[in-house]
Design a protein that fits this description.
heterodimer; A: mainly alpha; MetI-like fold; two-stranded antiparallel ribbon; 12 helices; B: alpha+beta; Rossmann fold; 4-stranded antiparallel beta sheet; 16 helices; 41% helix; 20% strand; disordered C terminus
Chain lengths: 383, 456
């Protein structure tokens, strides 16, 4: 064999090796740049939203049917849905948690949930709007919050049910493992309850957001007493286009809507579903996986990992140490003053508080009905 | 004298019923766990062994009585214990290391210390290099190793194990058992006592320094003795098999006396609960009883139950109900852990199917109170049907809901097979059987009276 030839191929081999190495080494940096770009975009979005919300209420807003207005409208609608969804998630988790662990109120809370989900979204409209506009009479944010709360009432119930039923079906031995290892409520939530409920919550989120698109039109444009409220958004665009029988505008609006729904599916649900795969409660690993480039981006970025290492992890540790210390204190107190009797006084106080709260709720509800009645009567007349 | 770690005084567990009666799961029981011992709690399913374990760890509160840890009531102290679960109970979304670190995290340990101890214990149980794997990527045996690591990482004073090997295959279980024993004997782990719940007699005799046998309905300590066989224990040795036989005998015959063996009784066995009105029908199918009797005939009419189980590849939990059923029908007798076929049993095993049913019918009517009562009730009623509810309520007085339902299921099964009565599942009623002239169907496959369904 020609020694020279060997030599050449050797150097070439090294060269290609070095090149692949460059790519491999710089890949996380590329991912970091992507993450930074996403961060800046989110910042810009927040600024725009703040500008809209802080402005005065716009009763006479004219919905433009120009396709150029669409990106902005679509953006406002998406933000509304996103905030309504976040609100739903927080509510669903808290409500499900309370219902699952308080035997005394469990049946009542579940019945209440069932009643609430049976009420059509539009029935919530007058009281919610009234309350929100009363809160912020001089700012646009009142109407905006009203729309968000309405979207919330259309999206939240199934998520709350999902979380509650997941909590109820956690296997007994997993719970016992958490108990015997002295998990605090926080650790139990983070390491057992949320992961166990994750898959149900993700799929119910998909459903809830779809429901939110459905109620969007009603929430962005409505008559209210003598006033006629319009919010800039995709829903009001489509509604106006339909009122004016502008076929072209309807087509543009629909195309935008479909594009957004596809984008949300690709950019949010797919990564979420891929991520939730690890929460499957299964004995053997299944061979089918959902893949998502966006999830790859987030899990392989150096910047995100570094931020987590510097902030979330130390904070987490501090909280856990504090919780453990508190548990020890509580136990020491219990050993010093062994509880006598079944805490009769405590129970009396609890019942008294419950009674007071119930009376307060009833009174407020009655007031609300009185408040809303003339408005609804007038609004139906004006329709 | 070894130090007492846990002392249970008159602990019992019962569930209140709407009627004055209550369902007793565990009769008042005294029990102690000493330092330096492996204690095995042995009993058939339904004897409340897992419930007892949960009461001793503080996971479950006794209905009455008190558990003390080092003479302190368990409610006012936080004993350093951990449990190895039958189902492993690992969190599938956490890696092996995260699973093992979780108990340390809950105890408020700093991250570096968590990592150090986590890695050390993984090394001890032979999981070095698996830190970042998820439990579902591991085999059953490896997963239970993670379970052991998670339990041992907190250096528990008493290690509780709830049937830790029963979800594993035979070889893996054997392997893990001997590794655990090695860790214990070499004092690699600072644990002072091990409390093992099992239904596997051999496992108990292999591992334990002391064995407590529970009887069921309600759970009650039948015997409590020390095992002084030296380690490693040989399953084939005379002393070992005799001990296994003895435990079988205790399980099948409450009043059995311990053999002259190197074992020392600890305390007095509790008095037997007052005899129940109804016998508990063992959950066995007539086909199973016939199968066992035929096997016995092949073994010249008499054999060790332990060997029979081995031959069939059965666990004791699977075989015992069948033996109990044979005993109840007087098709076989059990003495000293040996099952012996009776003449009636021999006749039964040798007959063809119609004759078998006839013999079964006779034996069932003579020996099983519940079946006799059902037949009498059907005869006495003018429409010859009796609602299931009636017997449900009778049995309910004495047994838990679960046991009651299982007994009714067995009674229906036996009654249909013996053609004593039939059961209309749609109306939940016992009815007169349709005596068939031709060869009868498989037991249990009887179809409900189609007429009654149309009526309904």
């Amino acid at each position: 064999m020609n020694p020279l030839h060997v030599n050449i191929s050797y150097t070439r081999g090294r060269e290609t090796l070095a090149r692949t190495q460059v790519l491999r080494r710089t890949w996380p940096v590329v991912l970091d740049l992507c993450v930074a770009a996403i961060g800046l975009a989110i910042f810009y979005a927040i600024v725009r939203i703040a500008m809209l919300w802080a402005g005065p209420p716009s009763e006479q807003m004219v919905v433009s049917l120009s396709p150029r207005a669409l990106p902005q409208y679509a953006f406002y609608s998406v933000v509304r849905i996103f905030l309504a969804y976040v609100l739903s998630l927080v509510f669903a988790v808290s409500y499900g948690y309370l219902a699952a662990y308080n035997k005394r109120v469990e049946a009542f809370m579940i019945a209440a949930l069932d009643i609430m989900q049976s009420i059509p979204v539009l029935s919530f409209l007058p009281p919610v709007m009234l309350a929100m506009i009363a809160l912020f009479p001089t700012r646009h944010v009142g109407v905006e919050l009203g729309a968000i709360v309405l979207l919330f009432t259309g999206a939240v119930w199934n998520m709350a049910f999902s979380f509650y039923s997941s909590l109820k079906s956690i296997p007994r031995e997993l719970r016992e493992a958490a108990d015997i290892n002295r998990f605090s409520w926080l650790q139990r939530l983070v390491q057992l309850e949320l992961p166990f409920a994750a898959i149900g919550l993700v799929w119910n989120s998909v459903m809830s957001v779809a429901g939110a698109w459905f109620t969007l039109m009603a929430c962005e444009m409505f008559h209210f007493g003598t006033k006629d409220f319009r919010l800039p958004g995709l829903g009001s665009y489509l509604q106006t286009a339909a009122d004016q029988k502008d076929g072209k505008a309807i087509a543009w609006g629909l195309i935008t809507m479909i594009a957004i729904i596809v984008a949300i599916d690709q950019l949010i649900w797919r990564p979420l579903i891929a991520w939730s795969d690890k929460f499957k409660f299964e004995q053997v690993e299944s061979s089918q996986h959902v893949h998502s480039p966006l999830l790859h981006l987030f899990t392989h970025s150096n910047v995100l990992a570094a931020i987590a290492r510097r902030t979330a992890e130390p904070l987490n540790e501090a909280i856990y140490i504090k919780l453990a210390a508190r548990r020890k204190e509580r136990l020491a107190r219990a050993a010093e003053h062994p509880r006598t009797g079944e805490g009769l006084g405590e129970r009396v106080v609890l019942w008294a508080l419950l009674g007071l709260a119930g009376a307060g709720i009833l009174m407020a509800a009655q007031r609300a009905v009185l408040l809303v009645r003339p408005v609804t009567a007038r609004s139906t007349l004006s329709c | 004298m070894p130090q007492t770690i846990i002392r249970a005084e008159h602990v019992e567990k019962y569930y209140a019923q709407p009627s004055a009666n209550r369902i007793q799961v565990i009769a008042p029981t005294d029990l102690q766990v000493f330092s330096g011992e492996i204690l095995a709690l042995l009993g058939p399913s339904g004897s409340g062994k897992s419930t007892l374990l949960r009461m001793l760890t503080g996971l479950s509160k006794p209905s009455a009585g008190q558990v003390y840890w080092h003479d302190q009531p368990i409610a006012t102290t936080e004993p350093n214990v951990s449990i190895v679960f039958q189902s492993f109970a690992l969190f599938p979304w956490l890696t092996v290391l995260e699973n093992v670190e979780a108990p340390l995290q809950a105890r408020g340990m700093d991250a570096a210390e968590q990592r150090r101890r986590g890695l050390k214990i993984l090394d001890t149980v032979g999981l070095d290099g698996f830190q970042t794997a998820y439990p579902k990527e591991l085999s059953g045996g490896m997963r239970q190793r993670v379970g052991f690591a998670r339990a041992l990482v907190v250096e528990p004073e008493v290690l509780f194990m709830d049937e830790p090997f029963s979800a594993l295959d035979v070889l893996t279980a054997e392997n893990l058992r001997s590794e655990l024993l090695e860790l214990w004997q070499k004092k690699t782990i600072p644990t002072k006592a091990i409390f093992l719940v099992t239904h596997n007699i051999e496992e108990a005799v292999l591992l334990a320094d002391r064995i407590i046998v529970l009887g069921r309905n309600p759970g009650v300590v039948r015997t409590d003795f020390k095992v002084t066989l030296p380690h490693p224990r040989d399953r084939k040795s005379e002393a070992f098999t005799q001990l296994v036989d003895y435990i079988y005998k205790v399980l099948t015959q409450p009043g059995a006396q311990p053999p002259a063996l190197p074992l020392v009784p600890v305390g007095k066995p509790a008095a037997e609960p007052r005899p129940a009105h109804y016998q508990e029908l063992p959950h066995a199918r007539p086909g199973g009883i016939a199968g066992l009797l035929e096997l016995l005939l092949d073994h010249h009419g008499k054999d060790d139950i332990y060997r029979l189980a081995d031959d069939l590849g059965f666990e004791i939990d699977d075989l015992l109900p069948i033996v109990d059923a044979g005993q109840m029908l007087r098709f076989l007798t059990v003495t000293e852990g040996d099952a012996e076929i009776t003449p009636a049993g021999e006749a039964y095993a040798n007959s063809e199917i119609l004759r078998q049913k006839e013999l079964f019918r006779k034996a069932a009517l003579d020996n099983v109170l519940l079946l006799r009562q059902i037949v009498r009730a059907i005869d006495a009623k003018s429409d010859h049907t009796v609602p299931e509810e009636f017997f449900h309520d009778l049995l309910d007085e004495q047994f838990t809901e679960e046991v009651t339902l299982r007994q009714l299921e067995t009674a229906i099964n036996w009654g249909r097979y013996a053609e004593l009565f039939d059961f209309d599942a749609a109306r939940r009623r016992f009815i007169l059987p349709e005596r068939q002239s031709g060869p009868p169907d498989e037991p249990g496959a009887t179809v409900d009276d189609p007429g009654s369904e149309i009526d309904g």
